[in-house]
């Protein structure tokens, strides 16, 4: 009789989820970073009204091709721990929420919310540096380096909520709300369509479509927090934007409700397909690593 395969231990599965999440995030950033940069420009500079294509063209003419990758080092450095934390904590919170007498949709949404809350503490310092670098409009070779930007922030304002961790509450709001709907929609959608067993490529298409929908809807819901984060963490002459809800209220009063959705189109272009790519890479990487150790 063939010996039964031994299931991986809880610690091994945690390590697999951590590694798979990190790799998924790395792949997503490498593909989608230029769109994220345009989104940040829309949110930091309220007078930017050009189309996405025009923004890309003007950046290329004024700042060169490498301008599309301004600020990529902080997210690349952060992406492995960030996405690893996202997926690892989601799985752990999901296990805790499953012990409660609630529906599976609430399990996924609650675990997503808490994973985003946790993830924000890891990513916020990197986001602070990334936004400042993406806001600079000079040639790539002339702008501040990542490390000089970090040193300047720490030297001037320190490591706390006025320095490297400026905008933490907005980052918490952005990630907690996004993950709540992202994971909730994705896994509820998978359960709802699971009965229709599809062959290989069609099943990948099904998962991609659900992931795309999850990333798109979550982006539409959480973008006011994203705008607030960009305003707080971006360059300010006289400090105007200080806290998450203070910034949302101020933008609404001065610029109207539409300003709270600035950058929505590039955000959707990034996190619609980006969200689908990330979930698929995570799932298949996790399945591959699990199969290798069994």
Give an overview of the whole structure:
- This protein has 294 residues and is mostly helical.
- The protein has one domain: Mitochondrial carrier domain (Mitochondrial carrier fold).
- The chain has nine helices and no strands.
- It has helices spanning 10-44, 52-63, 73-97, 104-135, 146-157, 168-193, 200-233, 244-255, 264-293.
- The chain is globular and about 60 Å long.
- The mean pLDDT is 85.
Strand content: under 5%
Rounded Rg: 20 Å
Number of helical segments with 4 or more residues: 9
Instruction: Output the CATH topology.
Output: Mitochondrial carrier fold
- Helix percentage: over 70%
SS-derived structural category: mainly alpha
Principal-axis shape = globular
Going by CATH, what is the homologous superfamily? Mitochondrial carrier domain
Keywords: Membrane, Mitochondrion, Mitochondrion inner membrane, Repeat, Transmembrane, Transmembrane helix, Transport
Protein name: Mitochondrial 2-oxodicarboxylate carrier
Main location: mitochondrion
Membrane topology: Multi-pass membrane protein
Nutshell version of this structure?
By secondary structure, the protein is mainly alpha-helical. 74% of the residues lie in helices and 0% in strands.
């Amino acid at each position: 009789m063939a010996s039964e395969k031994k299931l991986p231990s809880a610690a091994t599965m945690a390590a697999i989820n951590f590694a798979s999440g990190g790799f998924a995030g790395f792949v997503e950033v490498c593909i989608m970073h230029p769109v994220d940069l345009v989104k940040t420009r829309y949110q930091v500079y309220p007078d930017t009204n050009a189309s996405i294509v025009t923004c890309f063209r003007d950046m290329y003419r004024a700042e060169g091709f490498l301008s599309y990758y301004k600020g990529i080092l902080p997210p690349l450095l952060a992406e492995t721990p960030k996405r690893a934390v996202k997926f690892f904590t989601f799985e752990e919170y999901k296990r805790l929420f499953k012990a409660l007498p609630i529906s599976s949709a609430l399990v996924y949404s609650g675990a997503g919310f808490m994973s985003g809350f946790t993830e924000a503490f890891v990513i916020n310092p990197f986001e602070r540096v990334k936004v400042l670098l993406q806001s600079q409009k000079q040639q790539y070779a002339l702008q501040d380096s990542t490390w000089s930007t970090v040193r300047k922030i720490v030297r001037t304002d320190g490591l706390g909520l006025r320095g490297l961790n400026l905008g933490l509450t907005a980052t918490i709001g952005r990630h907690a709300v996004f993950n709540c709907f992202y994971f909730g929609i994705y896994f509820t959608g998978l359960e709802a369509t699971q009965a229709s067993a599809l062959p290989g490529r069609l099943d990948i298409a099904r998962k991609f479509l659900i992931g795309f929908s999850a990333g798109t809807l979550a982006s539409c819901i959480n973008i006011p927090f994203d705008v607030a984060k960009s305003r707080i963490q971006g360059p300010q002459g006289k400090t105007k934007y200080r806290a998450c809800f203070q910034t949302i209220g101020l933008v609404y009063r001065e610029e109207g409700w539409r300003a709270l959705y600035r950058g929505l189109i590039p955000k959707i272009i990034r996190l619609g397909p980006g969200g689908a790519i990330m979930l698929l890479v995570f799932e298949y990487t996790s399945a591959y690593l699990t199969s290798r150790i069994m």
